[in-house]
Amino acid sequence: MKVSPSTLLIIYLSEARLSEPANRLWDAALGRIQLQIPRPTFDTWLRNTHALRLEGNHLVVSVPSTFTAQWLEDRLQKLILKTLSSISSQEITVAFVVGTENPRRNSFSEPVNPNAPSSINNPLGVTAFYPEYTFKNFIVGPSNQLAYAAAYALASGSPSAYNPLFLYGGVGLGKTHLMNAIGQLATSMGKRVIYVSAEQFTNEYLRAIKERKTDGFRDRYRSVDLLMVDDIQFLNGKEATQDGLFHTFNELHRSGGKLVMSSDRPAGELRLLEARLRSRFEAGLQADLSAPEFETKLAILNALTEKISNPIAREYLEFIATHVHDNVRTLQGVHNRLLAFIEFTGQEPSYELAKMALGPSALKEIPPILDQGMILDFSSKAYGISVKALISPQRTKEASKARQLAAYLLKSKLRFSPDQIGQILGKRDRTTITYAIGQAKEALITDPQFKEFVLSLEKNKQHSGLFNKNIESA
Questions:
Q1: CA–CA gap between residue 12 and residue 112 (Å, rounded)
Q2: Fewer C-beta neighbours within 10 Å, C or N terminus of the chain?
Q3: Which CATH number does the domain housing residue 333 bear?
Q4: Are 189 and 69 members of one domain?
């Protein structure tokens, strides 16, 4: 039967409406599940899955193979169902199907499967990269600035580029993003690039020895302009493979080629690597990617929220950035969970939803949410005066100290600007507030009582006894 174009459009739109909530729910679930299971398990069985549709409370998830579907049903289904139901606040059932419909990547999909043979059969040695991972959308901050600059210099062919470049850092801090960005830029400039995992390099090398095809292996790896090896720490203790990489690097270096490696630790800590190979790595540039600071985390969240139709207000993003301490991947997972909570509960964004998105373990660590009124009340009671006196023109020692404390807390805890703080504290000008904050920072070093007030708030202690004691002595 012939189907009209208008009917096809209706079918397409219907599928789109079904798949988007499904994608959100599944991404949120993956974000939470990846924090509860080993990384190899997540990478092997869940990373390359995606949601197809959500029909009522039944979620259909596409998986790469029948074996994957069976494994998930046998080993992880209980955790998956519990996570889905927790996020959506209702019982969710799930079905795993093998298929290629809706080939959308989830937020955790690898840009390239390091163990896939896609680049092995490519005579030019060009690897397919994940297009979303570019230099343009990499959020740069103090925690990754050196790594970014070094990666860009090498990929763009700068004379100042170091060779080899050794990127290291913990899970989810941007190594994969930078590796893909390097590969894409270098490829766009006509360079021949191979990007493999240490495991794939090992497997190919040992297979070449076994099948007596070492000439082909050498030709493949030593004729490229740029070789990138991911997770180099897995070569620890594999002496034969280390020997192959050492000679490959020497040949590449001699012919003008470049080498980029990533690891979860500095080269000097890879004790089971041969000394000669470790010294090669250390002779180049080692650049670390560490946990992002608050400003970088906030910039990452802003970039994520710009992609959705109803952006989340800044105060909720700041709340998340304040309480996610480990890596970018966790930050993305929390953001996805917040979006899912908003969508599936029908509620407006709020601090309570943001706390739920952070997960049960984080909830226990989060103190009651501060606001402007709480800080004014805290600061005035600390020095035995009223809030009215705090914001008045009064210039007593107690009032001045209370204003310094309030200004410091409004700036450090709520991240208000000096202009905003001035309006709160009796319409004082920016210069006065800036001076007060400076005095507060000095008092943290020289005034034990002032420091005690700040620390007591940070530790979420009960302050009544502290206030009463101070009021009596005032």
A1: 28
A2: N
A3: 1.10.8.60
A4: no
